[in-house]
Amino acid sequence: MSSGLKNEPGFGAKVKVVTINGVAAHLYNERGEMQFQTEPNGTILSIFEAKEINGQVYYRVGDQKAWLAKADTNYATQLKRDADQYNVSIKNGLVIEQNSPVPGFKGMRKVFKDADSFPKGTTFKWIDAPNTNENKYTNGKIKITFPDGSFKERKVHYLIAHNQAVANKQNFQAKNQSLSRTFNRSGANIKNLPPKDFDFDFLKQNEIMSRFDKNVDETLNLYEQGLYDQMSNTIRKGIEVYVDELMQLNKINPGTSWQMANLSNKLAYVAYLHLLPKRMLDLCFSVKNYGNIGSHYTAAGVNQVSALADLRQYHDLLIYLVNAYGYEAWPYADVQITDEQNKHPLWYKKPNINPAGIATYQEYLAYKNDSKGNSNQTQSNQLKNEKLKMGQSMKILISCFVAVGIVIIIGIGYEIYQLANNNSTKTEVVQDKAPTMKEKAANLSVKQLLALSLIYAKRNDDSKFDNNWQGVYDVLSNNNYNVGRYDSYTFGDATVSAQGQNYIYVFEKGIGLGYQDKGNQKLVSFFDADESEPVRVYDYQMLEVVNNLSAVKKLAKKLVFTNESEDY
């Protein structure tokens, strides 16, 4: 121990893991590199030595790869910097009016998702101010400084809204005016809207979009008149048509109960079948929420800026249908989506679905509500049927023996009784030896575990995963995929190291998996450079959710390691 650490606890002292958010604390190696191994919050450990590494104090609680940061212990005078304690994520869908002043303190504060949780004394400063003279979108960079002096910088993306004089609503007789008139849907005919952003003429040139003609005409008419609540509600009705169209385009029959389902449940069914990229599904829910506001006519109505954002999103949802199912290449109003599609074109292609194997909407609800109960009931019924058939067969067999003679019945009947009991015993033994989910997971090969992890992340049932994982799955399901294997890898600001005989498996820059041995099981970490914390789940927990070994094995065959030298 160095002389500068004389006030630190010495050999044999006890230290308690104490983290600010209650999650497990990572261990580090002797160079200060984060390891895959963690220690749960509240764990009490023995200290072997204290050491300063890269300006921070660490306590060794095991070998040279088991150093615990002082900041994650009860010895820390300050557990975390303010900048590390608070979520500084930026909101999506920010809109700013063209030629408006650069946002001040209140405007800068509003761009953060959790601004209400920031401590008093937090300040904001533009490093790169947004240029509101732009026509479509503008970017900026903001610096947030907390009272303790710690700070972080974040990029901000705005869509540009264009000023429009709102027509007098009292003079517009919405109920009496026909909204089905022929309307030129190009942006040049909509007041103060950029033509390139809102060219709805693509609807005329594609047969699959004919069902949306009337809805789009009505939407644009209402926007022109400044009736934004009604417009958002009309767009919401368009999403009802949208999900129906997705069923038809993919030749899926959702069943008779589909027509009675509400929009939220319909979108959940679409998500369950993975008919849309996550970005498009997010737009659907956003448009639905705008429509909910517009339909209730409360004080929290839809203003012009929100209406513009709503209209852009609806435009891009329709563009997706044309591009994916009509094989067109129309640009999106949100240029980030266009960039994303260029980077990951497979995400935005028509999904490859076999309609014959699709669960109906009613079956989907049953599966979600009581899949385990239904499975147990089915097994119980099967066992009852087997016992009933066996009893009937025994009765017939014994009747035949009666015709031969009572003596034969006594002898053979006893043997049959013994045979039946033996069969029952053997059946029970087989059932007792059926592998558990943990045993099945423990028997997976490395490639199968990778495939299972991707299928689990792709489901995104709990919204812990962003669309990066769905993109990797989509590419892998259509092609062989080359996976990199590393002893350590840097995701964003964190460097993680593999434990034991494991590797860090990297699918693309910033996306990867790591495994930690926990007895016969493996704890899986999903690393994403865009997320502050990895998602962690055990192998058997994933298998319980996916519950499809054949799909796992099929996907695993498409995995190839960059430096493959072993047979997995």
Describe this protein with a few key phrases:
15 helices, disordered C terminus, 19 strands, SH3 type barrels, 6-stranded mixed beta sheet, Immunoglobulin-like, 568 residues, transmembrane, 5-stranded antiparallel beta sheet, alpha+beta, 5 domains, transmembrane helix, Rib, globular
Q: Can you describe what's shown?
A:
With 568 residues, the protein is α+β, with helices and mostly antiparallel strands. α3 runs antiparallel to α4, α4 runs parallel beside α5 and α6 packs antiparallel against α7. A hairpin with a 6-residue loop joins β17 (521-528) and β18. The longest helix has 44 residues, at 361-404. It has helices at residues 82-85, 105-109, 213-224, 228-249, 263-273, 278-296, 304-325, 335-343, 361-404, 406-432, 437-442, 446-459, 467-478, 539-546, 549-556, and strands spanning 14-16, 25-28, 34-39, 44-46, 49-53, 56-60, 67-69, 94-97, 123-128, 137-145, 151-161, 481-486, 488-491, 494-497, 504-508, 511-518, 521-528, 535-538, 559-561. The protein has 5 domains: 3-80, SH3 type barrels (Roll); 85-161, Immunoglobulin-like, CATH 2.60.40; 169-357, no CATH class; 361-434; 440-561, Yope Regulator, Chain: A, CATH 3.30.1460. The model is unreliable at 164-188, 371-376, 386-390, 400-404, 406-410, 424-431 and 564-568 (pLDDT under 50). The radius of gyration is 31 Å and the shape is globular. Keywords: Membrane, Transmembrane, Transmembrane helix. Residues 82-155 form the Rib domain. It comes from Lactobacillus crispatus. This is Rib domain-containing protein.
